Amino acid sequence: MLGSYLYEHVPTLWELELDRAQAMILHRILDG
Questions:
Q1: Tens digit of pLDDT for each residue in 1-32?
Q2: What phi, psi does 16 have (nearest 5°)?
Q3: CA distance 12 to 16
Q4: In this structure, how many other beta carbons lie within 10 angstroms of the beta carbon of residue 24?
Q5: Which of the residues 2, 4, 22, 29 has an alpha carbon 20 to 30 A from that of 12?
Q6: Rounded Cα–Cα distance for residues 18 and 13 (Å)
Q7: What is the signed CA dihedral for 12, 16, 17, 23, rounded to 10 degrees?
Q8: What is the rounded (10 degree) CA torsion for 14, 17, 22, 24?
């Protein structure tokens, strides 16, 4: 049960992490 829950929600968490990483990189470039 928990495994299927994680399997369904991991992509969403992964996309959030990617968005946050891209935002950090973008800020670093603009500040640089």
A1: 778 877 788 888 889 999 999 999 999 999 98
A2: -65, -45
A3: 6
A4: 10
A5: 29
A6: 9
A7: 160
A8: -170
